[in-house]
Design brief:
Strand order of the largest sheet: 3-2-1-6-5-4
Number of strands: 18
Length: about 475
């Protein structure tokens, strides 16, 4: 499937290449991929080229061209929907990404617009989860926004004002993780200052009805504030978002009649004789920027296309903020057990310990470790192992009625942190966990899983003086078989 066509793909600028690489690295990280790659078509649409890559393989065909001849790659790109190949048993070298077979077990793809593809594969499992597929779609939407914004910046290169305003609107674009809705506030204020408007605001659709929420506002009176809900019944905002079309009106277009922004009888604090409404659709849903002036604003006629393109800039800011929230949720939880992930659980233990230490309270750290986890992964289907870990997590959380923080502390290792327990309760909790987990068998639905599990618990402040000591004490007990046998 490999071709060596002449170089037709326009090389991205260093900034764009870095942003695409950051996105692909993020995809590889959150999806635990063997290889993640962004592929884009050349200018005549005949081939795909790897434009950004993150891989654990030494056999990537980075200079190869993948033919768009109606076969495998054409169907993935032109299909317009995500694709998930489970239990892949073919020769991965024939795909064209690798120069030799890498033993890929599953892969999934999502189209990037109509001219690209986001690819993720794995050697660890025979299928990805529904959560992983959803995350891939969100990341592909971000890739589309990045490429569209780059195209906007390139088209605007002929106008110094346009070229300079886009980086000002999104000053932290080089670092996706820093973008949040505070940038919407700043962008509205900047448009108000440089665009000659009296008021600028952004809205997002709340539900399928005509209800929107104001997400940022500048120049309008205090009652037109962020967070306010507003109906869009018969107004231009509803029309623009429904039809996915911008609307630019200057005074000469409508004479004495005033346009309706949201609904009849609205109170915006100014008579909008000049109005620009630019809609967008991002990962979270529909939104729009509203730019209004009580006097003619001939800047709209200077470059109508540029003002209409503002929606893509605001869509990027809004979409990345939403995706960071999604990513934060994914990183917070372990995909197998459903408990807090290892990194987040460690952070939570620091927070809880600081609170207990300040209040001169007490803590119990209970550890449960499946010592033959590698064997379970080899002998059982991945889905059954997931259910096994979910069962362990449910049983761990059900050991006590007290409020506790539960999470993963290593592969096959689950932990529980409880406040306000005296040393004797540590022993009772440890005995209860030993009885629940250390029989050598765990019932998972209709199947019984044979396993070796150790349990250990440590108490603060009777056994240690700090958080590191609490972990060290519990781990030392866990690594001593006599403490559980």
């Amino acid at each position: 499937m490999i071709s060596h066509a002449s170089s037709l793909v326009r090389l991205p600028s260093p900034n764009l290449a870095r942003r695409l690489q950051d996105l692909v690295a993020l995809a590889a990280d959150v999806l635990d991929a063997f290889t993640a790659a962004l592929l884009l078509e050349d200018e005549d649409g005949g081939h795909l080229k790897i434009m950004a890559l993150q891989s654990l393989s030494d056999n990537i065909a980075v200079n190869s061209w993948l033919p768009m001849d109606g076969g495998f790659w054409t169907k993935l790109v032109r299909g317009g929907v995500p694709y998930h190949e489970t239990y892949f048993e073919g020769d991965s070298a024939r795909l064209g990404i690798y120069t030799s077979d890498e033993g890929i077990r599953a892969f999934m793809t999502a189209p990037v617009g109509e001219k690209g593809l986001l690819w993720v594969d794995t050697r660890r499992t025979y299928s990805f989860t529904a959560k992983h597929l959803k995350m891939l779609v969100e990341l592909s939407a971000t890739a589309v926004n990045i490429l569209e914004l780059a195209a906007i910046a390139e088209d605007a290169a002929q106008s110094a004002r346009e070229l300079n305003l886009i980086p000002e609107l999104v000053p932290n674009f080089s670092d996706l993780a820093t973008l949040d809705n505070r940038d919407l506030d700043r962008a509205c204020a900047l448009i108000l200052e440089t665009g000659g408007f009296d008021g600028v605001l952004t809205v997002s659709r709340v539900d399928e009805r005509s209800l929107f929420r104001i997400t940022a506002s500048a120049g309008f009176p205090s009652w037109v504030r962020k967070g306010r809900l507003v109906k869009c019944d018969g107004g231009l905002v509803g029309w623009c978002t429904e039809n996915k079309l911008p609307k630019l009106i200057v005074e000469a277009d409508f004479g004495e009649a005033l346009p309706i922004v949201f609904h009849r009888g609205e109170k915006l604090g100014l008579e909008a004789k000049t109005l620009a409404i630019v809609p967008w659709t991002d990962a979270e849903g529909d939104g729009a920027i509203v730019m209004a002036s009580s006097r003619p604003n001939w800047r709209l006629d200077e470059n109508r296309a540029w003002w209409e393109s503002l929606g893509k800039v605001f869509a990027l800011v809004s979409s990345v903020a939403f995706q960071q929230e999604v990513l934060g949720g994914i990183r917070r939880y372990d995909g197998e057990s459903g408990l807090f992930s290892e990194g987040y659980f460690r952070a939570e233990t620091r927070r809880v310990f600081a609170r207990a230490s300040a209040a001169k309270g007490s803590l119990v750290l209970l550890l449960v470790l499946v010592t033959d986890m590698d064997r379970l992964y080899l002998e059982h289907d991945h889905a059954l192992v997931n259910r096994f870990l979910e069962t362990l997590a449910d049983q761990l959380e059900g050991i006590t009625r007290r409020s506790a923080v539960a999470g993963k502390f290593r592969t096959g290792g689950l932990a529980l942190l409880l406040e306000g327990l005296p040393p004797r309760e540590r022993d009772r909790l440890s005995d209860k966990a030993t009885g629940a987990f250390c029989s050598g068998r765990i019932q998972v639905g209709t199947e019984e899983i044979s396993c070796n599990i150790r349990v250990a618990a440590a108490h603060y402040p009777s056994e240690c003086s700090d958080l590191a000591g609490l972990w060290r004490k519990a781990l030392n007990k866990l690594e001593t078989p006599s403490s559980n046998e």
